[in-house]
């Protein structure tokens, strides 16, 4: 059906190599014309071994993949105030520089799985909008009601009435980002202001007034699903087109919800990780690596949490 390239962008460090591959693979898998899918992996520290696995998994049915090293600088200060202890989360802000040939791209978090063709998602972006996404599950979805962001909003018309979208699934007007120096503005904000929700806050602030909301099915945030809808992702109540595993456990964790995790394992089984299932032993090493990353990136927060008498209320 599609006769033009569909750009899909993912980003992660080494720890999320497999989920990243599953997310991108699902987009290829569900595409009506996989030979038009162009995956860009923004590599925030992926090992040579995993880069090879990613390439082999995504070079299928005519789809193409490029793995490009993340070269933008994200200062330590940007990580300190936030809830996400990884530089990789900021990579999406710089997408325009990593997919130079693309006017539009779909960004997928590493904890998402496409259930339908994302080419349709690209077409939803309306002229004049910088970015489109699904309203975030926190608050009422209005940026003016998120106190920490109000002082940061631009004074442009409509900014205060902008929605607050989740950054896990985004359609980006990269041509506009380039011509309006949006990437530079992301960089400036991140360098000067610690943001609790990192890149997500940055997108909603910088693009305020030109943020488009999409039907919720395009970013089905699992923590918003009720117990009855959890088992019927494809049921009439939830028109899930992309699942976003925002709740824990994630499908790749031990005891991850089996009903929800089915499409995730289906995608994994179409990669070189085919047959992979979580076991205690397999999860130990990533767990230790995440712990070590916490120690490196947010020592203050750890100290406050575990120091005797320290505040446990934190984030
Ligand atoms: Mn996510």
Description:
By secondary structure, the protein is an alpha/beta fold. The chain folds into two domains: 6-217, Alpha-Beta Complex (Spore Coat Polysaccharide Biosynthesis Protein SpsA, Chain A); 281-315, no CATH class. 34% of the residues lie in helices and 14% in strands. It contains twelve helices and ten strands. The strands form two sheets. The chain has a seven-stranded mixed sheet. Strands 5-10-9 form a three-stranded mixed sheet. Helix 1 (17-29) runs parallel beside helix 2 and helix 1 packs across helix 10. The longest helix has 18 residues, at 280-297. Bound molecules: manganese (II) ion. Residues 109, 111, 168, 244, 246 line the site of manganese (II) ion.
| Helix content, binned percent | 25-40%
Cofactors, ions and other ligands in the entry: manganese (II) ion
- Which CATH top level class of the largest domain fits? Alpha Beta
- Overall structural domain count: 2
- CATH evolutionary superfamily of the largest domain: Spore Coat Polysaccharide Biosynthesis Protein SpsA, Chain A
Structural class: alpha/beta
CATH architecture assignment name of the largest domain = Alpha-Beta Complex
Describe the sheet with the most strands. 7 strands, mixed
Radius of gyration: 19 Å
Report strand %: 5-15%
Output the number of helix runs: 12
Count of β-strands: 10
* Oligomeric organization of the protein chains: single chain
The name CATH uses for the topology of the largest domain is Spore Coat Polysaccharide Biosynthesis Protein SpsA, Chain A
Mean pLDDT: 89
